[in-house]
Fold this protein.
Amino acid sequence: MSLRTQLTEILPPLLPSNPAESIKGTELIRLARLQLNGAYSDASLRYHFSIMSCDPASPIAKVEKGQGYYRRTAPVPALTGAQELLALSHGRLDDFGSDHEAVDAALERLRKFRAVVMRYYDVNGRFPFVFRQAFAQGSPLGNLWKFPEVVLVDWETGEGPDGELTLDPTMLSLKQRMGLPPFRLHAARLRIQPSLDSFREDFFQALSASIWAQGGELIYAAPVLDEALADALRRLNAAFGVGVISFGLTPQALDDLPRPANILNAHPKETEALMERLDVHRIAAPHSRQHIDWQALDGLRRESPEIDQLIAWLSSCIENGRAEAYREEA
């Protein structure tokens, strides 16, 4: 097995996710060497760290203007990234030509927006679950219509003695007796730029991907400034129930935000400053159903293991009596 292949497997658990807690190269070499097969010099390891940190697909990233390393934010899934590029070029990827910088900038905006959405709902008491494997390279294009990018979970909670969000046992028992889920699941699609050319596809993908959940959301980064577009989205909402919301972040505003890893690991004051940059505007409220379509959800279980991960997480929260954020395995 090559050194790079070994490092790709070894490094993720060794690297901190927060750039502010980055690990120095000397310490990373020491930890990696404990698991490596083969005798490699410090210079060889440092060379590989440097080369891999420039590769967006590798797990290691280097801090800006520093010497430490951290775990790279998960890449944008292939299908959703390609769809975003198609929307930006109005269905003609040739418009990008060989401008790799433009492609990288577009995908980085998507990564940042996904991180903003995660942080925003964390702060506002909703619990996000992100789908990645369903949109991985090689997945069928039909998955764009079957799976949401994010599921937002709402619990009825109270604050426990340690500040934890505890689930109300009385309400849990009552809903169980009535055959109702003890949570509300809304399935969401994320897009950067609203457009009269693509809003119907955006909307109906969000509808299709949320058919099993209790509601659907279409979440735009940029503001919806076109009155005709806003009216058209409201008409679709009135007919089909998918909610539409904008975070008020133009592409330029996204470019000015910190890296996704910094957003996800921001301290309270940094998070507060980030929230002040948002101009969240509700264009249309989602219509929420009481029941989940369990048959449709069970059908999706055969197509993505992430459905089982979602169910296991929800079950764990119920068993523990606490609403806990989903933690992805390193």
